Amino acid sequence: MSVERREARQPWILLSPAMAAITLLLFVPLIFIVVYSFWLRTATGADQAGFYLNNWNEALTDPFYRDILLNTLKIAAITTIVCALMGYPAAYFIARSRGNKAILLLLLMLPFWISYIIRTMSWINILGVSGAVNSILIWLGIIDEPLQMLYNETTVILGLVHFLLPFMILNVFVSLDGIDETLEDAANSLGATKWQGFLEVTLPLSLPGLAAGGLLCFVLGAGTYITPLVLGGSTDAMFANLVFEAIITQLNWPLGSALSLMLLAVLGALVLIYNRYLGMAQLMKGLG
Fold it and tell me: Domains plus CATH for the chain?
């Protein structure tokens, strides 16, 4: 074997373990889900193999699933906007810190050491009828009876922000940390104010990190089911909860597979549109 052929094959040899893992853990299960989505759930509870469109017809035509999907996208969008508004100042503060940047990053990473479920359920002890907020308000004499602050759309968004905010901060921080701070000084020396220097120099250069963080928060927020399950009410279910209900509770794998593929297709289409018009390929032009 010639040296040229051996060098040409070497990258594929190095990539083969990762490609094998992706194939076995991602593509093979996805193929099973696609096949399951065309099976039929019979009245006896058994799954009938074949090529039936009943599940897809129900998923695509039932207004119930459409409304839940739209509500899911709305909650994910609101969560992403809130994470961006809260995460950018925090990321900017960390990136411009002197001497304690490593400590701040460590504090930012601490939530990842605690289970996501435990972090979500902690809001019950904070906002519940006998939680910390109600206890303090009653002790201060502000209210006489506990307020009902749980099990609504607001607490679902609050729980998602609690979960996704570190992802936004980390993405924006990486972008800000790579910007030369002397660029703002140069803008100030040319007559720009601090605020003008930030708007004209720092903000455009940090948009790729903000776009990446926004995309990550939106996709993770739209695909979650733990937060609405724990903090939401009966009318605050998200689309992933329907998949969980169909597969785990009803044991209706064909319908659950169709619903999961429906969510995957919608999110995939939105990601493609995002990258086409608002993605990093477009925002990177600001670096020129």
Answer: 56-287 (1.10.3720.10)
The Cα 268–Cα 254 span in angstroms is 21
How far apart CA 108 and CA 89 sit, in angstroms, is 14
pLDDT confidence band for 2 (50 / 70 / 90): low
Residue among 176, 156, 197, 171 at smallest CA distance from 84: 171
Q: How far apart are CA 6 and CA 94, in angstroms?
A: 46
Cα 122 from Cα 158, distance rounded (Å): 12
Report the alpha-carbon distance of residue 47 to residue 41 in Å, rounded: 5
| Segment 67-104, tens digit of pLDDT | 999 999 999 999 999 999 999 999 999 988 877 888 88
> Token digits for 257?
């597979």
Taking the CA atoms of residue 250, residue 252, residue 255 and residue 257 in that order, the dihedral angle to the nearest 10 degrees is 110
What would the mean pLDDT of 16-38 be, rounded to a whole number?
Answer: 88
Residue 16 confidence (pLDDT): 85
Does the pLDDT of residue 15 top 50, yes or no?
yes
Structure tokens at 166: 């570190």
3-state secondary structure the chain: CCHHHHHHHHHHHHHHHHHHHHHHHHHHHHHHHHHHCCCEECCCCCEECCCCCHHHHHHHHCHHHHHHHHHHHHHHHHHHHHHHHHHHHHHHHHHCCCCCHHHHHHHHHHHHHCCHHHHHHHHHHHHCCCCHHHHHHHHCCCCCCCCCCCCCHHHHHHHHHHHHHHHHHHHHHHHHHCCCCHHHHHHHHCCCCHHHHHHHHHHHHHHHHHHHHHHHHHHHHHCCCHHHHHHCCCCCCCHHHHHHHHHHHCCCHHHHHHHHHHHHHHHHHHHHHHHHHCCHHHHHHHHC
What's the pLDDT at 283?
46
